Amino acid sequence: MSATYNFCAGPAMLPHAVMEKAQQELLDWNGQGVSVMETSHRSKEFIALTEQAESDLRELMNIPSNYHVLFMHGGGRGQFSAVVNNFLGEDGKALYLKGGQWSNAAVDEAIKLVGEDKIDSIEIVQKDNGLNKVVLPEFEGDKEQYRYLHYCPNETVNGIEIFDEIDCPWPVIADMSSTIMSREIDVSRFGVIYAGAQKNIGPSGLSIVIVRDELLALPSLKQSSIMDYRVAVKNGSMYNTPPTFAWYLAAEVFAWLKSLGGLKQVAIANEKKAQLLYQCIDSLAFYRNGVAVENRSNMNVTFQLADDALNDKFLAEAKAQGLIALKGHRVVGGMRASIYNAMPYEGVEKLVQFMEAFAKENA
Ligand code: PMP
Questions:
Q1: What is the ipTM of this complex?
Q2: What is the pLDDT of residues 165-203, one digit of tens each?
Q3: DSSP codes of every residue in 66-96
Q4: 74 lies in the same domain as 222
Q5: Number of structural domains, the chain?
Q6: Where L-glutamate is bound, by residue (predicted)?
Q7: Ligand 1: which of 77, 150, 182, 209 to mutate, most ligand atoms within 8 Å of CB?
Q8: Residue of 29, 56, 98, 102 marked active site
Q9: Pocket test for ligand 1, best of 156, 297, 302 (most atoms within 8 A of CB)
């Protein structure tokens, strides 16, 4: 069978080498005669795995020592409420940047929990010659005005990425679900980074939270213990039984990223893949991407065909060639190729060849 390239936005393709190793270890992990899923999270073998995972993640992302790394439940959305409950006390307010589907959803959740008067928001995407472009305002003001500023650097649905870092007087909280570890970032510029795992880390359900120490002194709302960062820190992310298999797979993905040479190399590869695909879209009148060049996502490439009536044909013929899960999110329509870290260059090459042939036959 020829290779299948999975362009799903999440749960996304995982590195082939990691999946093969997991397959080999499924019935016998670490010479124990049982799988990691059947191993106590308190066992010395599993604790060693978690220590290695944290140390690899710290090395990959160059995480300063005044940051905690937490492995939590509840994916990306779980963190929409967790950040509110962890950082907004009785009188705190927060500022949210709205740049697409996911940052908008985070606003809705925050308002649901603390009410509209505690959550200010700014729309940051504007139309520029028909293209979606991010325009960040000047952030000035009183340090005490907001407990935090929340934004989403990569909008998975809309294919919009914000490469500039945010300069503001408040701690920045970033939903990095679909961009984490795709390139190097300066962690010290963030108060909290969180990410659902199912794109660049591992299986869905797990989320990773990187939180600056001093923020845990802020007053928080009464909340469930399993989403409380302070409880997670105190218990080494094991207040309750953690998603052990997801943690194991994440650890394997971190080791794999290190074997590639770390995030600097990974970013070069990602840039190359994205360029190849955008070049194809730009060079053929048959396809259109609606995002300003400086905000085009390197992870989620959205595009429309010249005629929407051809969408089903495109998807069916792509699938027949092993190019799967290219359908765009229902909100934006068209196509979306998610090309996270695990997508090899050959996968994008094959997609581009298919797109060229399809355009020729159907123009
Ligand atoms: N944030 C972003 C940027 C996402 O892409 C997603 C999922 N696609 C989420 C949050 C929600 O993640 P989950 O489904 O794990 O709750």
A1: 0.99
A2: 999 999 999 999 999 999 999 999 999 999 999 999 999
A3: TEEEEEEESHHHHHHHHHHHHH--SS--EEE
A4: yes
A5: 2
A6: 42
A7: 77
A8: 102
A9: 156
